Amino acid sequence: MSLLELKDVSKVYGDLHALDHANLTVDKGEWIAIMGPSGSGKSTMMNIISCMDRPSSGKVIFDGKDITKESRRKLTEFHRDKIGLVFQQFHLINYLSAVENVMVAQYYHSMPDEKEALEALERVGLKDRARHLPSQLSGGEQQRVCIARALINSPELILADEPTGNLDEANENIVLDIFRQLHKEGTSLVVVTHDPEVGEVAQRIVRLDHGKIVSDKKNDNFSE
Amino acid sequence: MRQWKKLLMIGLTVALGASIATAMLNVMLDVGDKINEELKTYGSNITVLPQSEAVMNKLYDVENGEEKNEYIKESQLGELLTIFWANNITDFAPLTDTEVSFGGKNVKLVGSWFDHHLEFVKKGTTYQRDTGIINLRSWWDIKDGKWLDEQKLDSANYAMIGAELAKEQNIKAGDTITVNSEKGSQTLKVTGIFESGDDEDQCIYTPLGVAQKLTGSDGMFKKAEVSAITSPDDELAVKAAKNPSLLSGDEYDLWYCTAYVSSICFQIQEAIPEASASAVRQIADSEGKILEKTQLLMSLITLMSLIGATLGISNLVTSGVMERSQELALLKAVGATNGQVTGLILTEIIATAIVGAGAGYFMGYAFAQIIGQTVFSSSIEMSGMVAFIVIVLIIAVTLVGSIPAIRMLLRLRPSEVLHGGH
Amino acid sequence: MNKKQRMFIRMVLASLVRRRSRMIVALLAIVVGATILSGLGMIYYDVPRQMSSQFRSYGANIIFTPSGDESISDRELKSGISFISQEELEGYTPYRYENSQIHNIPVTLAGIDFGSVLKTSPYWHINGSMPSGDGETLVGAKMAESLGLSVGDSVSVINSFQMTADTDRTNIPDYEITKDPETGEEYCDHSLDLKVSGILETGGSEEEYIYVTMKDISYLTLTERGYDIVEVSVASMQDTLKSYTEKISSGVSEISAKLVKRVTASESTVLTKLESLVFIVTLVVLALTMICVATTMMAVIAERRKEIGLRKALGALNSSIIMEFMCEGLVLGAVGGILGSVLGYYFADLVSMNVFSSSITFRPLLIPITIIASVLVTGLACLIPIKSAVDVDPALVLKGE
After folding, report:
1. Are the C-beta atoms of C257 and C63 separated by less than 8 Å?
2. What's the rounded Cα separation, in Å, for the pair C232 and C120?
3. Residue B52 pLDDT exceeds 70
4. For residue B334, what are the contacts with CB-CB under 8 A and spacing of at least 6?
């Protein structure tokens, strides 16, 4: 069963076709890497999937529901309930501790619960760093907090935008291990990246160029 | 684009601070003169008497000298317009008083200028002034009728009467009265009844000509009241008041060129040798005191506003620079030296500050004029010094405001900023 | 309190405490604004009172004269004065005038109390010193010139009159009495010997009198009587003074109380100007300062656009973001307002002590006004940038910079 469907989606900024009649289906539990050079429309696609942006034309169907025409407020609620975001820049709130950053996501979603938040940090191996401020954490640790925050509300889909872009190799591997773990647990993952190493570990690889999907195929090297 | 907005914000704050500084400093510097003008409502602060009277009275065994010794020539009074501090003399009027019999009793009659148009020619220069007791008796309440308008009335035979006397004799504006003196009798038409709240309520005021006729002193007057804007007395003034000739040359020049009541008196005596001018202590002293207090009050309010403005500016500059730490760290990461980064920041901030200060100066000018017009109905004089002070102050404040931010920048390790916290 | 509210407070507190340097910047701006508001406010409200007492240097502003032919007795004077509030009363000086002679020249003596006269005539300049009591005199400068008197001289004031059967002879030494051998009429040259303690300079008509104590003047004239005129100095505005004179004139029928218009009318003119000067200065400075506070707050908030974008990306509704940030701003505004009103009071007091040498009147009402004003200004200043930040697409904010 498909979780997300982009039907003939285009996004036009002035003369620029950031996304050009793209069609994409993401099944539940699937791990997809969206790859392509800069300016290929990866970010635009990511924004549209995350409901932070609307397509100029085409339809976005999430969980069987057409969300293209929903109101802004509905979109926000929808996105809050279904999607967890992981950013290249981590985007942690710098005056809140790691656990508090996780709790912020709970706060806007439903009810903050410190115990659950600590559990989420434990999952990414940061239980002992829970009380530290972002400035006291390394880049990799910050990214793991970001991931913990993304999965705290048990979203159906985790969207990661260049999640390893600011990380060294060791940290990159830690993050990818967490993704594997999540995949095993049945969470759907969409990872936007231009890094082949990150792309190569996904179940399916979609390549974009100039706003068009140029290839969409199973990754033969994928190992559970 | 966002950087633009940021600089705009700093510029705006600087402009606001500069306009407070400009407006307050100018008002502060000018408030003395303005309040001084207002204090003129208390009437004259200098009395001019014939010199001969003073000399004569010293020899107490000479009971009454020649009649003319009691007088000063009316034509001499124009000399007041020629002295060094002539512009500080706001009003003056000659007065001649005499006892007349009226309504069966002796009453004091005072002849003076009401709104006299004076033209005085000296060395080919014509000095002009409208002056008289209309301004020197600003506290008079006109109960009935109106002020005697010397310039409009064709003949001099008019009078104004004090409220008590008018009540006693049952006189209204428009009535005609007759007064008698040793030298003759005069019929006068009453233009108005005034209430003064002192013994002048028992007096008759007429144009000077009437009193001259009744005393037989054509072209003369007994006493002049002068209202001048003066500087509060200080040590030098006290020293000079005792005897100006005891001052050293420099002190004398300073004293002579400062608008002390004593130096103005001295200059009046120089201009009219037959007169002796002295300060009316009640007015002159109190003026000094009130001026001093007002100026001190305004200076402290100004100081308070300046502190507020400078704190506001340096505060915003600090936060403005700090906010850019990421961008600046990036510059350091690509190899800019501390000096280059600091230079960049300072150039940007100071350029903004100068533009802001310039705009603020003109805003401040407008505010000062609004204050001047609303409160004193006259414009505030702008001092060139203020522009200078404001510019220096603003640049200093901006620099000081940048210090904490720059110190932070210098300590900054690029990697920290680019990874952490944002 | 549920977990959500606890988290809300936790976030607001964390932002206030952990973003210390930024918060200090914002707080400082608010404190400066609030200090200026409360300080200038207090000064403004106190200026009329403080200046009014400065204006007392012009001397008496009310005079009592007898309403009939009788002089004013001590008792009548006291009951007249009792109408005036003790706090406003600066002082009063009764005068008794008598004609007399020195060296056969007619002079006017004025009986006064040397201890209190400077309260009503603070502008008196005395060369030498103020007489300390009986037997000493203060001579007006014009009089001193006419009589050739200077400080330290002794002078005899003579009261010449014809003795009658009614004359009280107890205080008259025998040598002062001369008998006309032809008519048998007795004449007295009653004299009072005085030491000139000081010469009075005022530039006004006061210089024409010779001042002695009430006791000396009674001795010389051989009569005890009341006062011809009483000068009263009251630190109050014209309207209040006017009501005093009306009350006194109707309350004590022997006294006619009048305003010294020259002093009162001019004072109200000048004070009104001064008051409006301080008012408009306060207004201008305040307006500019408030804009300053607002720009600073705007800068502090604008700096957090990214955070706002992130919160939106985490699914926050605009309304809840606005609420969190406003709450922070309002806490800052309130704290700044409280600090500012206290500092403002100290500042106003400092100004008052320096300028008027008296402490400022504390206006409790200004504290809530200051706090409310700083909360409002801060709130408004926060609202504008927050509104504009929440309207921006989070994707743009998070990506774009």
Report:
1. yes
2. 6
3. no
4. none
pLDDT for C136:
93
Chain B contact for A166, CB < 8 A? Answer: yes
**Would you say residue B248 lies in a domain?**
no
Are C288 and B19 a contacting pair at CB < 8 A?
Answer: yes
Which are the contacts of C304, defined by CB distance < 8 A and separation ≥ 6?
Answer: C325, C389
Cβ contacts (< 8 Å) between B284 and chain C: which residues?
203
Q: Are B71 and B199 in contact (CB under 8 A)?
A: no
User: Which residues, 6 or more positions from C13, have their beta carbon under 8 angstroms from its beta carbon?
Assistant: none
Q: Is C21 an interface residue toward A (CB < 8 Å)?
A: no
With a cut of 70, say whether residue A224 has pLDDT above it.
Answer: no
What is the DSSP annotation of B160-189?
EEEHHHHHHHT--TT-EEEEEETTEEEEEE
Chain B contact for A71, CB < 8 A? no
Judge whether A95 lies within some domain.
yes
What's the DSSP call for residue B260?
B
Q: Please give the ipTM for the structure prediction.
A: 0.83
- The model's pLDDT over C246-259, given as tens digits with 9 standing for 90+, comes to 999 999 888 989 88
Nearest residue, CB atoms, C7 vs list A80, A95, A103: A103
Partners of B305 on chain C (C-beta within 8 Å) are: 36, 285, 289
Range of the domain at A118: 31-40+70-203+211-218
Q: Is the pTM of this model over 0.90?
A: no
Q: Given a cut of 70, is residue B201 above it in pLDDT?
A: yes
Residue B226 sits in the same domain as residue B334:
no
CA distance C43 to C361: 9
Distances (CA, A) of B86 to A211, B40, B80, B89: 86, 15, 6, 5
For residue C378, what are the contacts with CB-CB under 8 A and spacing of at least 6?
Answer: C30, C293, C297, C329, C330, C332, C333, C336
The predicted-structure confidence for C300-311, as pLDDT tens digits, reads as follows: 787 788 888 888
- pLDDT tens per residue, range B170-196: 988 888 999 988 888 888 999 999 988
Q: Is residue B356 part of a domain?
A: yes
- The neighbouring-strand residues paired with B192 are B145, B160
Predicted confidence (pLDDT) per residue in C156-186, tens digit: 998 888 877 777 777 788 778 888 888 878 8
The domain in which residue B143 lies consists of 45-230+270-279
State the CATH number of the domain containing residue A142: 3.40.50.300
